[in-house]
Amino acid sequence: MASELGFEKPITELKNKISELRHFTEEKDIDLTDEIVKLERRLQKLEEEIYGNLQPWERVQLARHSERPTTLDYIEHLFTDFLELHGDRLFGDDEAIVGGIAKFHGRPVTVIGHQRGKDTKENIRRNFGMPHPEGYRKALRLMKQAEKFNRPIFCFIDTKGAYPGKAAEERGQSEAIARNLLEMAGLKVPVICVVIGEGGSGGALALGVGNHVHMLENSTYSVISPEGAAALLWKDASLAQKAAESMRITAPDLKELGIIDEIIHEVKGGAHKDVKRQAEAIDDVLTASLTALSKLSEEELIENRYEKYKKIGEYGLVNDVMPVE
C-alpha cells in the first residue's frame, strides 16, 4: 500500500471507517449498506475537494512520493522490445540515467530518462536519480545515434538535479549539461519530453530541450528546489512551503507561462495509485505529439524548437528598465 501524505489523512481515515463497516457487515451479518453508501459518497466528495485543490507544496510532496512511477515503470507500459544501452564511451555507465531503443506502437524510437530508486538500496545504486557527467554523455550518445537512424526521441525527466559532488565537477558536470543543451537544440528528429516527477535545475534541462515538453499534473519543474530557494532567499530551508508557493513550479503555472505544452492529468490521488491507467494517459499525449511532429521536415523540427524557446520569458530594452543618464 502506498504511504500516506499529510494532506491525505482525512481520506485515509474515512476509507478505514468504510472498511470497518464492511468487515462488520460480513462478520455479524448485519445490513449496513445505507451507512456505507453515505460514507462512500462523502469519500468521493472529500477526494474531489482535496485532490482538486492541491496547493503547490502538496504537489511537491506527490512529485517526490517514494512510490511514484519511474522512467522504467513507464517504459514497461508504453514501449515494447526495449533494449537498454549502457556507457558513455568515455568514462563509464551511470545508472541515474537509463536509455535504449524500443518500439512505440511498432515504430522504432529512442527512450532516455532519469531513474531513481524506490528503496534505500536502489536509491544508492541510482545515486538518488542525480546523474554524473557520464550519465548526460550517455544520453547524448543515444540521442546522436537516434538522429543517425532517424528515430524519434522520448525523454522522461525526474531528478532533483545533477549530482553536485567533487568527482562530478572534476569530470566536467557543467560542460556535459551545456553540451546536451547545445546538441539537443539542433537534433534533426522529433524530441518529446515528459516531466514525470521532479524536474530540478540544469540536471533536468539537460534532457528537456524538446519540440514538445509535457508535464504530469502533480510534477514540478524549477531552477532550484523549494528548500534551496528558501535557504537562499530567507536563510531558512524550513520555509520551503512558502518558497513553493512563490516560485510557480507546478504544471498549471508552467502551462500559463508557456514553458510546457500540455498538462497530463493524473489518476485520482497521484500517478502511483494506478500506473497502468497513468501510462495510458501519457500514451495518448505522446501519440498526438509524435503524429504532429512527424509531419515536419528536419529543418522545420529545428526551427520549431528554436521558436519554442525563443518565446519563453519576457524581453525589453535596457532603457525600459534602467534609464541612461
UniProtKB/TrEMBL annotation:
Keywords associated with the record: ATP-binding, Cytoplasm, Fatty acid biosynthesis, Fatty acid metabolism, Lipid biosynthesis, Lipid metabolism, Nucleotide-binding, Transferase
Superkingdom field: Bacteria
Pathway in which the depicted protein is active: Lipid metabolism; malonyl-CoA biosynthesis; malonyl-CoA from acetyl-CoA: step 1/1
Reactions mediated catalytically: N(6)-carboxybiotinyl-L-lysyl-[protein] + acetyl-CoA = N(6)-biotinyl-L-lysyl-[protein] + malonyl-CoA
Extent of the signal sequence: none
One term under GO cellular component: acetyl-CoA carboxylase complex
Task performed by this protein: Component of the acetyl coenzyme A carboxylase (ACC) complex. First, biotin carboxylase catalyzes the carboxylation of biotin on its carrier protein (BCCP) and then the CO(2) group is transferred by the carboxyltransferase to acetyl-CoA to form malonyl-CoA.
Family: Belongs to the AccA family.
Protein name (Swiss-Prot/TrEMBL): Acetyl-coenzyme A carboxylase carboxyl transferase subunit alpha
Native species: Halalkalibacter oceani
Lineage of the organism: Bacteria, Bacillati, Bacillota, Bacilli, Bacillales
Gene: accA
